[in-house]
Design brief:
The protein has eleven helices and eight strands. It is α+β, with helices and mostly antiparallel strands. It folds into two domains: about 70 residues, Orthogonal Bundle (Arc Repressor Mutant, subunit A); about 190 residues, Beta-Lactamase (2-Layer Sandwich). Strands 5-4-3-8-7-6 form a six-stranded antiparallel beta sheet, with helices on both faces. The chain has a two-stranded antiparallel sheet with strand order 1-2. Strand 7 and strand 8 form a beta hairpin. Helix 3 packs across helix 5, helix 4 crosses helix 5 and helix 8 crosses helix 10.
Length: about 350
């Protein structure tokens, strides 16, 4: 009886205690809200929220895997596991784990002969989808093919990618040329024909950035490594409507390059005719320069660009670097930010 009374007394004491509500949990916040992917932002975002910087969403393992793809794309494959580890400054086990997943998903394949790794055809298919998206290629390719047939030299087209030019199209020469003109090859801007053509229509800030990093590296005795000298060269390119590579990236290799403008006057690509110096004599370069300017105008016209309609004068022989052509309408300045012998 006494035990029952004691239990009833304790229960009454518990119920008579003052009620203290539990602290409210903060409203649920979706991690996708600040990057614009959440449809319930009115429920998940408070007035004090601020968007997170892009680095807040970095997935380190994904970045490392992408770096592997970059190395395999930029360098001569195949790369062994040890070479990739050394090149990326990552532990061998980390690189191996990432490669296993890249191989499993079809982005990388193992070379059975060397035991190294290289990009797969799945990456090629993805790259071709990007090329198909470049509509200006459809307008340019027939004219570039015609230029290739007339000059019987390598003709290729490149676009700007960061502070380099990347080859996106080529037509081979029926004559022997010691030239690496593979698609996807990256080329410096300050010493190649297509590079200088693309650089000539960029902003002064872009030029200064290029001179600072990666810098104006000397490739041959003819390379322009001084910024004032390069500025004069770019001004000359804008005036005459084409660029020359006078053995500036490879001894014994010359090329003539022209720009491709779109309907707004922006330079969206460049193309070049390249060949050995023994065939690309001053007289031959003058002849090709005329064809390059005509092809540049024809492609750009198809894309909606309208320039000065006066006829182009014949390029003069002799001092090709110093020749002057008719002053063309100045296109709008763009604000865009391997191994082997590169094409120019």
């Amino acid at each position: 009886m006494e035990a029952a009374v004691a239990r009833a007394s304790r229960a009454r004491c518990i119920w008579e205690l003052p009620f203290t509500p539990a602290p409210r949990s903060p409203p649920f916040k979706c991690c996708l809200t600040s990057v614009g992917f959440c449809n319930n932002s009115h429920l998940m975002k408070t007035s004090g929220d601020r968007p997170k910087p892009p680095t807040a969403y970095t997935v380190k393992s994904l970045v490392k895997a992408l770096n592997i793809l970059e190395v395999l794309a930029d360098e001569e494959p195949p790369y062994t596991l040890t070479e990739l580890s050394r090149r990326l400054h990552l532990h061998v086990s980390t690189v191996h784990r990432l490669l296993v997943n890249l191989v499993r998903h079809g982005f990388v394949e193992e070379d059975t002969v060397s035991g190294g790794y290289q990009l797969s055809y799945r990456v090629l298919r993805m790259g071709l989808r990007v090329l198909d998206r470049l509509d200006f290629r459809r307008a340019a390719l027939p004219l570039l093919h015609d230029l290739n047939l007339r000059t019987k030299e390598i003709v290729h087209m490149a676009i700007l990618q960061g502070t380099q030019a990347i080859s996106i199209e080529r037509f081979e020469s029926p004559q022997p040329v010691g030239l690496d003109a593979r698609l996807g090859r990256v080329m410096p801007l300050h010493c190649t024909g297509v590079g200088k053509t693309l650089l000539a229509y960029q902003s002064e800030d872009f030029l200064n950035q290029l001179a600072h990093s990666p810098g104006l590296t000397r490739m041959t005795a003819h390379t322009l490594t001084g910024l004032p000298q390069l500025r004069k060269e770019l001004e000359r390119i804008r005036e005459q409507g084409y660029a020359l590579d006078q053995e500036e990236v490879v001894e014994g290799l010359r090329c003539v390059s022209g720009p491709v403008f779109n309907h707004t006057g922006q330079t969206i690509a460049a193309f070049s005719v390249s060949g050995p110096a023994m065939r690309m004599t001053p007289a031959r370069v003058s002849e090709i320069a005329q064809m390059v300017r005509e092809t540049s105008q024809q492609i750009s016209y198809r894309l909606g660009y309208r320039s000065d309609s006066r006829p182009l004068p014949e390029p003069a022989g002799g001092n090709l670097r110093g020749e002057r052509g008719v002053q063309r309408a100045r296109p709008r300045t763009s604000r865009q930010p391997g191994r082997g012998v590169p094409s120019t």
